[in-house]
Structures are given as C-alpha cells and as structure tokens.
Design a protein that fits this description.
The protein is of the alpha+beta class and 498 residues long. The protein contains 15 helices and 15 strands.
Length: 498
C-alpha cells in the first residue's frame, strides 16, 4: 500500500513538472509583457482592492455589497494560506530552467510554493463577488484566471499550486457567504410581543392586497416572486415611489389585510395606512436593510407567507409625533408615525445631504461625504425639551428600547414594550468630534455629551424654522413644536410562530 502511495505521489510530481515545462516552452504573443505585470498588480491584493473600491464608488448597492463579500473572502483565503497552507506543505519553488528570462520576476518570492497565494486571493475575491453579484463575478473571472496562470507562466508556481490555491479561494467565498447568512439569521430573533387574537388566516392570499414598491430594487423583486408563488389569490399592486400613497389608498379600500413589500420607508407608509383603516399589516421585506422586519423576526417573504397561512400575528407599539409631516387639521391626518425611530439634528441633516448627492455619486460615497459634512459643520439645534431649553446636536427617539450605548443604536428585542428610547447628544460648539472620541474610548453612556432615557412621551418646543426631522428614513421639515408619544399595541402585524 505504501509503495502504491509513493508511486501515485511520484506520478503527480512528474505530471506537475511536465506541465510546468510545457508552459515554459510555449510562447503566447503579448503574454510576456502582460502576464508578469498582471501578477505584480495582484501583489498584496492591490488589484482586487482597487476593483472593490471602484465598485464601491461607481456600482449599485448590490455591487457594493458584493465587493465587501469579495474582500472578506480574500482576507479569509490569505489568512488561511499564510498561517496554515504555506507552513503545512513546505514545497520548494520550481527551478527556473527553461523559463525565458523575459518572463521571470525581478524579485523571486521567498516563501514556499504550495499553495499559490495569488491564485487563492484572485479566486476568493471573484467567488465572493460572484455569489452576491453573478454579473460582476463573470466579468472578473477571466482576470482571476489570468492572474493564476501568470504564476505558472512566470515560473514561480507549479500548476498544482495554482489549482490548490484557486480551490481554497473558492471555498473561502462559500464560507464567507455561509457566515453572512448565519449572521443574518442570528439577527432575526422574534421578541415577546403579545399575540393578536382573531387575525384572519389567508393560506392562498384571498383578501390580501399587497402594495409593492418596485423602486426598492432586487430585494423587492425577489419578495414579489415568493408572494405570487405562495399566495396566488392575493391582489398585487405594483407602484413606483411617487405613486405609493395612491396605491395604498386603493389597496385599503378593498383589503381584509394590507400587505406591503419594500424598505423601511415604504413599510412606514403602509403601517400609517393600516392604522388609519384599522387593518392588520403583512410585511414582505423588500428593502436594503429592513430594520423593522428584522427586529420583528421576519427573515424574508417566506416567513410572512407562513404567518398568513396560519393566521398568526402580534400586537406592536407605534411611535407617534404630532403634528405630522402632512398639512391638515388636528386628527388622524395631523399625526406622523414611526416604526423604527424619529430624530432631529445631525442625522436628518446627514440624510438630507445623502438624498441630495446619491443620485449623482451613489449612496455609499454620498453617505461618507454627508457624514464628513455633518461632523465638520453641523451646529446644535437650540430648542426646548419638556419645558427646558437645550442645545441638541442629535435627538433620537426609538420605538422601543434599542441595544447599545450609541446615540442611534440598531437592534431591539421587542416591539411591544410601549416606551420611547430617547437619546440626546447635547452641548455647545461641535460635539461631533468629542462624540466620536467617546465612542472610541468606551461606552457612550460615559460621555458627558450623551444622555439616554425611556419615556412615554416628550414635548419639544421652540424648534427653529427650517429644522429638518427624519422618521424611518424619511425626511421632512419640523414644525415649531412637537409631541412625541408611544401607542402601545396599536398595530397588528403578521409574524410566524417561532
């Protein structure tokens, strides 16, 4: 048996060397100039970092997410190669006999040969990219293959080194995708909201009217596909952003249950319509972040379909501010509602800059530029809180208690608590740099400019004209005075038993 194993290993080594010699003897016009330069460009992941940066600046939201997955896959593959691979199999580099001098690298690598780190990085980045955005993955696959081949062409690796490195890179891409899915699933944890009795079961969707915001992107399209398959009798109303209000009014007029597919802003509009009509709400996550759906325990459209089939729903609290963003007399249309959070100060300013710049430069770069603009130039808002004058850099009110000690944390355990989570960043001058320093030094609750409390209601007065406010990602101008309060168990929302 041992003799057979040695014979097999010897055959692989002979095959490896023979294929290496074939590549060394073969000449491809133009390759002597292109392939060595391409291999050098991929040193230390520079080529792939540049590709990721280009996607972040010029690509869509999905392309940016794919670029992050690609870089994470590359980092995992590089760490594995450099800590385990290179030291586990101490294979010497190929002899350069037969490799033309014009192809050889000016500085030869000093590490061991197996596996190829360049190949692992190239295929890890491309696999991570392709698993999130197949189009971009297909576009970069020839570049990754060329980088891998260049390592044999320049004489620094055997073919088996390249194949093993490429396989490890692809495996790293799948591992990162699995870790991302596990992290996503870990976020989807239902809270202790009170079960709503009497919510109708709609196993085939009869009586359900769903408004789909087609402007929410690929996530909304995926949710729409699931919806049509699982609930064939549901009424589906597709609309773009400006048509949302009319579409909701149409759906409410004949629905037993109001459904919505879109991001947090779209869900907010549907929740407002459901509250005013006294209808249960079915949320099909279809946005980029889906904060409300995640906090409620909905991981995707399949979860909502299961809840509708069984008729399982819960009561949730809703934040309210009066007067609302719409003009109108006191009464229901004089109120605004928020499922996630409400804010005045730095965040609405940041949101306004981002919305203004993102059509021109993309949402990612716009968010970074807006953050820099706000931290550099934003001044506190002078207003009155509960009858006391305050200088406020940021006022954040969450619908339920959020985790974390920052001014605008992101996750809640329950939407049925019935309390506002109020966070203040106050002080004169520009507290942005001080706030960032406090965040780096430790919990923001220790910072003298940060205050957190929980309230049933809060009165805000003397708001300067032109001050912006934000609620669930929407942007509006604040009135001279506001009242924030919490409406416990105000809305019935479908969620599966877990």
């Amino acid at each position: 048996m041992a003799d057979q194993e040695l014979t097999w290993q010897g055959a692989v080594v002979r095959w490896d060397r023979a294929l290496f010699d074939v590549v060394a003897r073969r000449h491809w016009p133009g390759a002597d100039r292109v392939l060595p330069r391409l291999g050098r460009a991929a040193n230390h992941g520079v080529l792939w970092g540049g590709a990721a940066a280009a996607l972040a600046v010029f690509g869509s939201a999905r392309a940016r997410k794919a670029a992050v997955r690609g870089i994470a896959s590359l980092a995992l593959a590089s760490a594995t190669i450099n800590t385990v691979g290179k030291w586990s199999v101490r294979r010497p580099r190929p002899l350069l006999d037969g490799v033309p001098a014009v192809r050889q690298l000016a500085t030869q690598p000093q590490t061991t040969s197996f596996p190829s780190g360049h190949s692992a990085s190239a295929f890890a980045f491309t696999a991570g990219l392709a698993l999130e955005s197949p189009g971009w993955g297909a576009a970069l696959a020839p570049v990754a293959a060329s980088v891998a081949f260049s390592r044999v062409y320049t004489g620094v690796h055997y073919p088996s080194d390249v194949v093993a490195g490429a396989a490890l890179g692809v495996a790293a891409g799948f591992v990162v995708r699995r870790l991302a899915r596990d992290a996503q699933e870990a976020r989807v944890v239902p809270g202790d909201e009170r079960t709503a009795a009497g919510a109708p079961a709609l196993p085939d969707g009869a009586g359900l009217s769903v408004v789909v915001n087609t402007g929410s992107g690929t996530a909304a399209a995926a949710g729409l596909d699931v919806l049509r398959t699982r609930l064939p009798k549901a009424e589906v109303i597709e609309c773009a952003g400006p048509e949302l209000a009319a579409a909701l009014e149409e759906a409410v007029s004949r629905a037993t249950v109001l459904g919505v597919c879109g991001g947090d802003g779209t869900v907010n509009a549907a929740a407002t319509a459901a509250l005013r009509a006294g209808l249960p709400l079915a949320v099909f996550p279809g946005g980029t972040l889906n904060h409300f759906a995640m906090d409620l325990g909905l991981g995707g459209a399949e979860d909502t379909c299961r809840a509708l089939a069984s008729g399982h729903a819960v009561h949730i609290g809703v934040g309210r501010f009066a007067p609302g963003p719409q003009d109108g007399p006191a009464g229901p249309r004089g109120h605004g509602y928020f499922l996630n959070n409400f804010s005045i100060g730095a965040y609405p300013e940041l949101l306004g800059h981002r919305l203004r710049w993102s059509p021109r430069i993309g949402s990612g770069p716009a968010a970074l530029l807006a953050a820099w603009r706000v931290l550099r130039a934003q001044r506190p808002v002078r207003l009155r809180l509960a009858g006391r004058p305050r200088n406020v850099w940021l006022l954040f009110a969450g619908n339920g208690t959020y985790h974390g000690t920052g001014p605008a944390p992101r996750r809640r355990d329950s939407l049925g608590e019935g309390l506002l989570d109020v966070r203040l960043v106050h002080g004169g001058g520009r507290p942005g740099p001080r706030l960032l320093a406090a965040a780096l030094a430790g919990p923001l609750s220790r910072s003298p400019v940060h205050v957190a409390t929980r309230l049933r209601s809060l009165r805000i007065g003397d708001i300067p004209a032109g001050t912006p406010l934000a609620y669930d990602g929407e942007y509006a101008e604040a009135p001279p005075a506001l009242v924030l309060d919490e409406l416990p168990d105000a809305l019935t929302v479908y969620r599966p038993r877990m």
